[in-house]
Amino acid sequence: MPPARKRTRTYDPAKIRVAVLAQFGNVRQGVRTLTEEQLARPTHLGDWSVRELAAHLTMAVETVSRNLDRPEPGAKELALLEWPFATAARAGDIADGTRELAADNPDLDALYARVEERITERLATASDDRLLAARTGAMTLADYLVTRTVELVVHTDDLNRAAGTDIPLDRQALAACTRLLADALAVKAPGASTEVRIPPYAVVQCVEGPRHTRGTPPNVVETDPLTWIRLATGRTQWKTALDEAKVSASGERADLGGLLPLMG
Question: 199: cis peptide before it, omega within 30°?
Answer without folding.
Answer: no
